[in-house]
């Protein structure tokens, strides 16, 4: 039996989910593939599922959210893989709409979805892996990263991996050798590997002018009592961009639009529940993400827009207006 994994390419959680499967099952890293909930990476993922051959194999989808705008296409792809005599497990901690659950659960041997106090890597580790020290720590790192909690012991390490993912994630190939290399390092617990630290340090030096550009052009608007910060830039970490905008503008919601990739992120103001080590409270940002065909958590979500060879000045203004327009619709008084 061959195990294949399609995982979320844009954060530590998706990469750690894949790394746990590599570590626990000896799954070849060449069987790890990278996707997104929308755009070209999503379409590439659909084509991959349809062309995967053989019989008696297992496809594990991790940390990938779905919604009604995409579920019909995904159902066709999963049906094709299933008809060949294969099995499917889907583990995702994002909230799904009922139509997506109904459309896709019929093709999955195991499916876990919903807004949970776990990240995707937590689910992979708890449900599919034998427990060991490396797995314990990797799942913990992914959990802390996904809930934006940075204790002293792991804070720098988490940001280094985050920055490295940002740099390597510019390679959007579904079989990205760069992201596979990072997954391989995580699967061995080599979080402070020279490769990771060198890429992270290069990112820190490179990103300053782009962060300056982000903050210079960012704006904040009040929509039905909710303060929303919106910023545009490229080549910077989505999480860093959103956190900085939340703090700078005292915003309830931050929307970051990367003008080079179009993989937009939404983060919302929240507080840490120290007992469960999760973030709670705040505005439901996933409502806004779903208005664009995306999905995610209430406090951390995303969506994709078309940017072509890069979002123009006119495209920036049009996108800003569209974000505000959709925010007015989903956050009604």
Tell me briefly what this model is.
With 333 residues, this protein is an alpha/beta fold.
The whole-number mean of residue pLDDT values reads 95
Strand content: 15-25%
CATH structural architecture of the largest domain: Alpha-Beta Complex
Number of strands: 13
Task: Summarize the structure in words.
The protein is α/β, with parallel strands linked by helices and 333 residues long. It has two domains: 3-192, inorganic pyrophosphatase (n-terminal core); 207-330, Diaminopimelate Epimerase, Chain A, domain 1 (Roll), CATH 3.10.310.30. The protein is 47% helix and 18% strand. It is built from twelve helices and 13 strands. It has helices at residues 12-25, 39-51, 71-83, 98-105, 120-128, 133-146, 155-168, 177-187, 194-217, 238-249, 285-291, 313-330; strands at 3-8, 32-35, 58-62, 87-91, 110-112, 219-223, 226-233, 253-258, 263-268, 271-273, 278-280, 295-296, 300-304. The strands form three sheets. A six-stranded mixed sheet has the order 6-7-8-9-13-12, sandwiched between helices. The chain has a five-stranded parallel sheet with strand order 2-1-3-4-5, with helices on both faces. Strands 10-11 form a two-stranded antiparallel sheet. Helix 2 packs parallel to helix 3 (71-83). The protein starts with a strand and ends with a helix. The model has no long low-confidence stretch (mean pLDDT 95).
